[in-house]
Amino acid sequence: QLQASGGGLVQAGGSLRLSCVVSGSPFDDYIIGWFRQATGKEREEVSCISSSASLTYYADSVKGRFTISSDNAKNTVYLQMNSLNPEDSAVYSCAAVPLHRGWISFMMHDMDSWGKGTLVTVSS
Questions:
Q1: Residue 55 CA: distances (Å) to CA of 30, 67, 68, 76, 115
Q2: Closest to 68 measured CA to CA, from 94, 37, 104, 102
Q3: Cβ(88)–Cβ(122) under 8 Å?
Q4: What's phi and psi for 114, nearest 5 deg?
Q5: Rounded distance between C-alpha atoms, residue 96 and residue 27, angstroms
Q6: Distance between terminal CA atoms of the chain?
Q7: How do residues 85-120 score in pLDDT, each as one tens digit?
Q8: Where would I find the beta strands (DSSP E) of 23-71?
């Protein structure tokens, strides 16, 4: 199971840190990804990290502003979001897929487990 938290209302230029706690399954050998879906738009992949933290990915739209990290002792993945703008407003969800399924599963949104999303609203 995955549980995302940390969303809220922030002004443009502000920051938020999202957390995704993974429970019920071994944290090792997974890719944990963040996705977002704005009202009226399709879901898009934002960032992901391998459980060893040796590999990360960022969508071009967030590269340089968002940072993904993991704390294996806490079975938690974080998404630090800086320099937020109104276009970042969306429901953010985290999801997991076994590492052996590869990045293609993340890019295709073919994840095994999805957590309930957390709403991020950026005001202009």
A1: 11, 12, 10, 16, 21
A2: 94
A3: yes
A4: -120, 140
A5: 10
A6: 34
A7: 999 999 999 999 998 888 899 999 999 999 999 999
A8: 30-37, 44-50, 56-58, 66-71
